[in-house]
Every structure is written in structure tokens, then in C-alpha cells.
Amino acid sequence: MKGRMKLIYVMQEFSSDVGGWGMHLFQELSKSIDVTVLAKPYGHSIKKAQKVEIINPHFKVIRYSGPEIRGTIFPTDLKSILAIEKTPICLLQMDEFFKIYTIQAAEWCKQNNIPYIISSRMRLRPGRIRGLVIKLFANRAKEAVEGARKIIATQGKISQDEFMRWFPLKKESDFTIIPSGLNINQFTASINNTSEKKRNVILAVSRIYPIKRLDLTLQILAKLNDKNVNLWVIGKENKKELAKLENMITTLGLQGRVRFFGGLENKELPKFYVHAKLLVNTSETEGICFSFLEAMACKLPIVAWDVGGNSGVIEDGVTGYLTEFGNTDKMANFINYLLDHEEERKNMGEKAYSRLCKEFDIQKNAQRLLEIYKEILK
Q1: In which band, very low, low, confident or very high, does the pLDDT at 287 lie, cut at 50, 70 and 90?
Q2: Which domains can be identified in the chain, with CATH numbers?
Q3: How far apart are CA 293 and CA 291, in angstroms?
Q4: Could you give the strand order of the β-sheet that contains 90-95, starting from the edge strand earlier in sequence?
Q5: What is the pLDDT of residues 335-377, one digit of tens each?
Q6: What is the Cβ-side half-sphere exposure of residue 376, based on CA atoms within 13 angstroms?
Q7: Distance linking the first and last C-alpha atoms of the chain
């Protein structure tokens, strides 16, 4: 293979300021190959998206257009953009097997004899609309899946399980688990995580949205033994949900103990993690929650429900605690224990950091992807 390889990655939404796993992955890949991301603007972004955004000389983002109906996007110009971006040494990777953009991109690849990979970021999320969309496009999605050279599970085994629930593959070798990751050195470069900087704060990094169940976080805060513990919440705010939470704060007598910082750019987050004693997450479901990885980079233990892919990131009793969804008493007890036992909290944080370096280092995981790309394009 001569020349520089090009990856065109098609996904639903992307933002460079709150890009999460995608930003870390594409920056790392662009050190070795050219990367073009095709995506709609991320609905929770801080900055206004541009039609074309140049991140670095080998990484750019192009926005495709199309109507969106109940979370399903119908691209109108995706194939024309692909035709322009195509290069002699090129492959595509698409998020999710049932998305319209994945189906369109797969059809275009077949017409132009270009290999492609499908990423599965799914986890079980019951819902009539979601199930209806998958069933409605099942046949075209099946054709897209069957033509893929590899299926990459980016949310760990839970993505593989959910994928197989809809489309059993022809052979096991079609599937590879390469989890999302974090550029650890980049994230921790601006912080010095020392106990002297810690405040009496627990942190929640989550969009203020119904499925994130921050109402349960407030209930847990009210049950903590130390009434001087504060909660910091970082995430873009849904006005209706925020109003509901503010009413709860008054009802539960938590005035002055909860601060909402709104949505913040990635570069601003480390200074919040460094002041916190632990991360709490009460979302109904997660895949590989990116805030978990950020917390682990700052050596924080995590307390969360045993739902979705959480058990694939948090080792219960070792790097944090997991409990059944909705058991606020038990979660409050875990947090009380960590707040009261500083050495145990630090020990869990150290083990969380070691696990991050072993399994969720984006530099290592990007290299695994690059080897797959090279094998496909041989």
C-alpha cells in the first residue's frame, strides 16, 4: 500500500468542543492517516458548528444535511460528499448498523467498490420509536451489515450483545471489541491531582436530561451523612428538566449545596475533576460513559448503577461501586463510606487509573484500529 490512507468516518453528530471519545480517537488516528468525519452538528455543543472545520492538517469535519424526525436523520447530500472525499486509498467506517446514514454509505461503498467497517455503539435502550426504526429498515440494514469487512464494538461487550440481538453475524471473526478511550496524557496535562486541592464535593458530569436521572442524584445527596457535602453538575441543560431539579432542591432542603455549571468545553473539565472526591452517575443507561474515563484519569472512584455497560468500566468494589438501579439508600451508603475513608478512596482511584491505562488508552486502541485498516486495504 503506497500513499497515505484515508478514513471517512460517518456518524450522527460530532462536536470538536465536547467531542468526547470521537475527538480523542480521530486526533490520534490523524497522526498516521487522513481522517474526514461526516456528521451533523452535535445538539449539545457549546460553539456554533461550521460547514467545514479543519481540526489539524490531517483531520477535518464536514457537515451533511437532511431532515431529522424523532432522532432519525435522513441525509440528502451524503453520497455527493462521499464522491468528493473519495481517494485511491480509502475506507469508510460508520456508526450504528440501523442508521440511515450507515445504510446510505454502505450502498455507496458497494457501488464504488470501497471497503467499509460498521461500529456498534449500541446498548439496550427500550423504546417504541427506536425499535420501530430498526424494524422498518431491517432489510437494508442487514445488507449493510453483511457487506461490512468488520464490526467494531466500541462500547465493549454490551455493544456486541445488542448487535447480535438484531443481526447474528456469519462468523465470530467478523466482530472485534475495541472500546472507546481517552488520551490520558492530554487530559491530565493541566492538572496536579493532590489531596490538598480536594473539596467536599461529589461530581456529576452529565447532560441535564430526563434519561440521566439527576433527580436520583439529588435524592442521594439528601441522604448523605455529611450535610456539608456539595454536588457539582456539569452538562448542558434542558430547561424543563432543570426547572424540575431546582424545585426538588427546595423540596429536599438542598439549597446552597448544588451548583449547575452548564455545558463546558473539554479543556475546562480537568479542573473540576481535580477538586472532587468522587464521581456519581445515576443515568438509566450508559455504554462506555466518557465521564467515567475522565474521572479515572484523575484517579477518582465512581459510584453508579449496574446498568448498560457500566460493569465493563467499573470493577465493583475495586475501582468504584455498582448497585441495582434506583437503590438510592445503597448508593448513598457507598458514597458515605468513600467520603469517610480517604485512604480507601485514594486506593480505588489509583486502581481506576491503572484500569484506564490498561483498557481505555486511546493511543493503544487507535493502534488496534489502524492494524485492522491496514489489513483490509492490503
Answers
A1: confident
A2: 6-181+361-376 (3.40.50.2000), 185-359 (3.40.50.2000)
A3: 5
A4: 52-56, 59-62, 34-41, 6-14, 90-95, 116-120, 150-153, 175-177
A5: 999 999 999 999 999 999 999 999 999 999 999 999 999 999 9
A6: 25
A7: 6
